[in-house]
Amino acid sequence: MKKFFLVVLSCFFLSSVAIAAIDVYEFDTEEQEQQFKDLSNTLRCPKCQNNTIADSNAELAQDLRKKVYEMTKDGKSSDEIVDYMIDRYGNFVTYKPPFTVATSVLWLSPLVVVLLGFGIIVMRGKKKKAQAATNDEWNEDKEARLKALLEEDQNGDKK
Asked: How far is it, in rounded angstroms, from Cα 124 to Cα 135?
């Protein structure tokens, strides 16, 4: 039974190694290789959403890596490759989308939320101060009640 378990376990580990294939890309120059690495680490996988195309194993990310490789080998610049990807997949493919009408909500909403929150805090603080001022007005009736309570308390101690 131990031998059977050992055989099954070794088959499992060997098959997992076969699944983890690594793509190898050959470049003509060091600059092309560096450009490919930079673009692979800055372009976002449209399917995985929070991974770069270098980190993702999705088929779409593999296709994007191949396209970046082909365009890099063809001598395209980084800007040309990024523009191609944006034209094909939209601004989402970059981690730093440009400021446009469509992305203005993404850029401005945090600022609006902070300003609204700060405004609400200030308004509530002013409202509480106004309420405290009206509730804390000292008048002659309160003064008389306080004196009566103090005299009653002092007279009660003497008995």
From this structure: 16
